[in-house]
Structure prediction request, 550 residues.
Amino acid sequence: MPTLTINGKEVQFTPGQSILQAALDAEFEIPHYCYHPGLAVVASCRICLAEVWQKNPKTGELQQIPKLVPTCQQHAAEGMVVHTDSPKAIANQKSVMEYLLINHPVDCPVCDKAGECHLQDYSYQYGRGHSRFEESKIKQPKKDVGPHILLYSDRCIMCTRCVRFTREVTGTAELIVDGRGAMEQIDVFPGRALDNELSGNVADLCPVGALLDKDFLFQQRVWFLDKTPSIDGITASGDNLWIEHHEDRVYRLKPRTNLEVNKWWITDEVRYGWKFVHREDRLTMPRVRGVDPFEPEQAPTAYATASRRANSLLADAAKAKGEGSTGLMVSPMLTCEDAYLLAKWVRSIDPKAVLAVGPVPRQGSDKTFPGGFVVHAEKAPNARGVRMVLESFAPGAVLDADGFVARASTLAAAVVTGNYPSAWTTPAMTKALAATKVILIDTLPSPIEASAEVVLPGATWVEKAGTFRSARDRLQSFPRAFAPVDFAKSESQLALDLLAEREGRAAVAFDDAAVRAEMARRPGLADLAGAVFHPVEHAPVESDMVFVEL
Ligand code: SF4
Ligand code: FES
Prediction:
């Protein structure tokens, strides 16, 4: 690979790359504001300027380019020598920082971006440390520019990343630069809000605290947030994301860069779709019908009682009506591991149990934005994965939800799983299952819940580890961000507990990697051994400040 030298360090680059991108790929920092790898290069902020020497094509001698060069725009070349730490480059960095801070309110203590703000960070690293500006600052307004986004205009540094995003990625062009000189500001056209399916990305793109996410506004300081890599858990996109949480509570989801999947973006639907995780009416305790002599309906009970009842319901049904008289419907919201362990449990009781994939919600058809980003119509993360796993138990005989509902009245007992972020049952399904003894594993109340014999509380995707197979047929694993709410358990753990109770032994803790290895030995599931994409471990950021114990 060709190399160039930046501040005395050799850096490899791919032909066609800019100096800045080559440096960033080598984890070498050059300050930058207007540059973003997903957007056109405009070279307007000028903080990335450097002294550059390159070979004279005729003589082969190194020659300095007379002026400072924007590294975001200048292509890297073999043998190039770049200095971002020369007196001239440093003087430019200080001047740019001083210019950007002239009218900035410096309201970091009340700004959501504090702690992850490039203006704040670069001010420490490249700024002057004091202001020479004595005049009054220009005040700019705060604007409500869209359903999800607020604009604090006087924090804006006019990098135009947000404007370019709405032109190049979404093609909706809601944002504009209005005015000129010191009075220019970002704005929307009158009567037209920043309202598209990807609008939340502008808050991530904004290098300062000008564009803010209303949903996260004043909710939490960013340095308290833990980051867990995850996968979109509510649609079939397989988009990579970060779950940012604190004390078992999600505060926000942000895109995790993956150039093969979602690049740098996620949809608003995914970004704000986690709220059901903390709904007040989450199912949190096992419940069993008739277990309490004073309560003919369901009553909360211990897991041991619920497991015994669930196992005896299935075993009694299979014994009384023969093999194939029980069924399992696995929700496409569940992981491959959940599907495998649930099918293993049910099939250990009834080797011919009917297997089905639960309802797969769809909204319209897939939508592709001009920048290539696809919003998927399928609103479940793992329909393909669940079907793939169930097919390994019943090749060619796995039903869809309608097929299961049609068979439900012939089943003596059925295990039904939900875990959808919103209502998912149909009147036909509720009616068909009313004649069957149902063991329900779900996260939220549903009409089936009232008539179920046993209700077990499941875990949302942020509360468990597992693997999803996306609409692009990409298998991706993810770890759990935090433990399930109250007494809820992941469906994988519930299945392991139920298997252990049936076999009269102690339960084992769920280990997603071990279960994937076990699954991969089954016909048709070899991909789970070597074709799963695992998230790259996130190295915790070390603080450069001394913490003072109070
Ligand atoms: S609002 Fe943010 S992203 Fe948009 S131009 Fe200003 S600083 Fe850049
Ligand atoms: S990042 Fe190069 S000029 Fe803005």
About this structure: The mean pLDDT is 94. The longest helix spans residues 303-321. The radius of gyration is 28 Å.
